Amino acid sequence: MSEPPPSGRTFGRDIALLALVRLAATAAGFLTSVLAARVLGPTALGAAAVGLTFATIAALLSNGGLNISSIYFLGRRPAERRLITHWSFTLGLCATALAVGLVLLAAPVLAPSVFGAGHADLALAAALVAAGIVSFELSGSLLLGLERRTAYLISQVIEGIGSLLLVTLMFVGVAATSAGYLLGAALAALLAAAFATVIAQQTVGGRLVAFNGRFARESLALGLRGQIGNVLQILNLRLDLLLVPLFVDLRAAGIYLIAVRMSEVVSQIASAASAYLFPAVSRLDVGHTGLTERTVRITLLVVLASGLVIALLAPLLLEVFFGHDYAAGAGALRITMLAMIPLALNRLMAGDMKGRGRAGLVSVSAGCALVTTVAFDLLLIPQFGIEGASAASLIAYSTGAAVLLVAYRRVTGSPLRLLVPTVADARLLATASLGVLRRPRA
Questions:
Q1: What is the pLDDT of residues 173-221, one digit of tens each?
Q2: Are 273 and 419 in contact, with CB atoms under 8 Å apart?
Q3: pLDDT tens digit sequence for 71-90
Q4: Contact criterion met (CB below 8 Å) for 425 and 394
Q5: pTM of the entire structure?
Q6: CA-CA distance, 316 to 295, in Å (whole number)?
Q7: In this structure, what is the dihedral angle of CA atoms 278, 284, 290, 296, given to the nearest 10 degrees?
Q8: Of 203, 299, 313, 347, which residue has the fewest beta carbons closer than 10 angstroms?
């Protein structure tokens, strides 16, 4: 029998707490971007963006959907949590090694046309970033599946603040270069992954390294269906960072990276909600939709309000924090803020579908969005530059969200109007926000 749905207040509080933590980590990442923008300048920052994007794609190709399957099986098979944790961790080690190998094997082929000058150092740093991404994502998924939410929050803080501190140390004590920027970020992710791994091991006990062929096949069979979608989604999110330097230049890529990083402040709200929605739905009856509906409505309201503020202040924020050179990205930033609404809906619906064991539908959605991304990137970037890249993202995110909404309606039978924010939702959100602000401090 499935667990009863968590209360709206409790679940909403957990999401809000994770959102705040992720926003704090994003704020640290924001400061890291400010530092990198000031120290490196747009061109070198553009080279770092290319390396980071390449590492992210390699990590997702190697992941195999293990983060998806580990959360799903830990939720569905509570009696086997210890064994599932051990088996998943072992598969994660293999995925991490594969990610490093992909970057190192592909770098000689792609450099210097992709990585540009200094490509050897960038390739090595990108390989470490790929290892950090895989290990951070998989260890975090174990904490979520084991319901160690506090530890999960701490790991997010370690990664975010650690990145700021380590990048600063790299710039001051080692090398103020694109490779130094990537290396600092990689070490922070690996440090957070080490923490999460220790907590997971303490939770279940025993040696973490164990292999089971049957579980590996089950895990990959489920995970790959969803991971295909994750790979396609990251291409939707980051393909433009590879195409902008090809069609424009590295300087434009550096400016565009800052616009993308600014949008992450808003996107973390939906990411936090989706991160908790996935395991929560996996423990509920298939027909239950109330939790998803409440989560979607409130999250969309918060994303809309936050994005509007950033869009209005875009030129000022870019110039004050990053410098005059980056103010040219204001138009792209405003379009990107608008794109955060369908992206938020996309992530929330993906979390729901994965929780229902329908990860393949997420991949279908991402595939449709990717086709749209490629078509409009090729059409708009050469003519409109980074504003064209932002517009292409808006169209692609909207396409993916539309596909997932249709899938959600068919799988659950629930009317889509129940996902639309209402005046009552706005009042509830305003009341809750005012209550937090007015709460007396001890």
A1: 887 888 899 999 999 999 999 999 999 999 998 888 888 888 899 888 8
A2: no
A3: 888 888 888 889 999 999 99
A4: no
A5: 0.67
A6: 32
A7: 0
A8: 313
